UniProtKB/TrEMBL annotation:
Pfam families per the UniProt record, alphabetical: ABC_tran
Swiss-Prot/TrEMBL keywords: ATP-binding, Cell membrane, Membrane, Nucleotide-binding, Translocase, Transport
Top-rank taxon, per record: Bacteria
Protein name per its UniProtKB record: Phosphonate transport system ATP-binding protein
Lineage of origin: Bacteria, Pseudomonadati, Pseudomonadota, Alphaproteobacteria, Acetobacterales
SUPFAM superfamilies associated with the record: P-loop containing nucleoside triphosphate hydrolases (SSF52540)
An MF annotation (GO) of this entry: ATP binding
Keyword Transcription: no
Domain ABC transporter, residue spans: 2-245
Record bears the keyword Membrane: yes
């Protein structure tokens, strides 16, 4: 169980996340939606402790995540894997090595620094790549892959951490529709087959409805809706955001339009 209690983050006089409280059962797939600037990314970054909360607590199975320091915090970031919009791969390295990076916090420091991975770890990485139809690309440089392929490599890398929670921060915002579907299918597979808790920030309501068990809608740092996809009706969207769904989608598209789209 992941529990978020009155979580708040302020940047000067601006409050990016405002008193957010959620209880997320293990194994649930949660879509977090909202316009650009709603606080979605800040919320996920606080859960991983990449951004420090101004106040509030994060608990995971009774452990106070907000109190962790040093190795305990590094261990949490291993159990709570993060997937980013722009992949965060080392472009000059091959795909297999990028996936093996997910094992670094499981290994002695000297072995990590020297990049020495065991045969079992390499087999584990190849199995993860094969799961996402990428085994044939294992020895290619990461920068030779399409955007959708790179994001699947990032998911494989996250699985190598053997996490219990995966946080995906707008993982399809820079992808074309076909690649976006492939990546969302991969995240749903991880959620269903591995039983991992998945929180994914999304701009598109239809994607959240199709893939997520639960939808949390944010506006100006606050949770404005928390329910099932069926409960997020067109009327509810209009009530939350003051616009109909078509206009909401148009605004969401505008929010990501300046960012380049990665084609297949």
């Amino acid at each position: 169980m992941l529990q978020i209690q009155s979580l708040t983050r302020r940047f000067g006089e601006r409050t990016a996340v405002n008193e957010v409280s959620l209880s997320i059962p293990a194994g649930q797939m949660v879509g977090v939606i909202g316009r650009s600037g709603a606080g979605k990314s800040t919320l996920l970054r606080m859960l991983n402790r990449l951004t420090e909360p101004s106040s509030g607590r994060i608990l995971h199975d009774g452990m106070d995540v907000t109190a962790l320091k040093g190795q305990a915090l590094r261990d949490w970031r291993t159990r709570c894997a993060m997937i980013f919009q722009q992949f965060n791969l080392v472009q000059r390295l091959d795909v297999l090595t990028n996936v093996l990076v997910g094992r670094l916090n499981h290994r002695p420091l000297i072995s990590s620094l020297l990049g020495r991975f065991t045969a079992a770890e390499r087999a584990m990485a190849l199995e993860a790549l094969d799961r996402f139809d990428l085994a044939d690309q294992a020895l290619q440089r990461a920068d030779t892959l399409s955007g959708g392929q790179q994001q699947r490599v990032a998911i494989a890398r996250a699985l190598m951490q053997q996490p219990r929670v995966i946080l995906a921060d707008e993982p399809i915002a820079s992808l074309d529709p076909r690649n976006a579907k492939v990546v969302m299918d991969a995240l749903r597979d991880v959620n269903k087959r591995d039983g991992l808790t998945v929180l994914v920030n999304l701009h598109h309501l239809d994607t959240a409805r199709e893939y997520c068990d639960r939808i949390v809608a944010m506006q100006a740092g606050r949770v404005m809706f928390d329910g099932t996809p069926a409960e997020l009706t067109a009327e509810k969207v209009r009530e939350i955001y003051g616009v109909d769904e078509a206009e909401f989608h148009e605004q969401a598209e505008e929010a990501v339009r300046p960012k380049h789209t990665v084609a297949a």
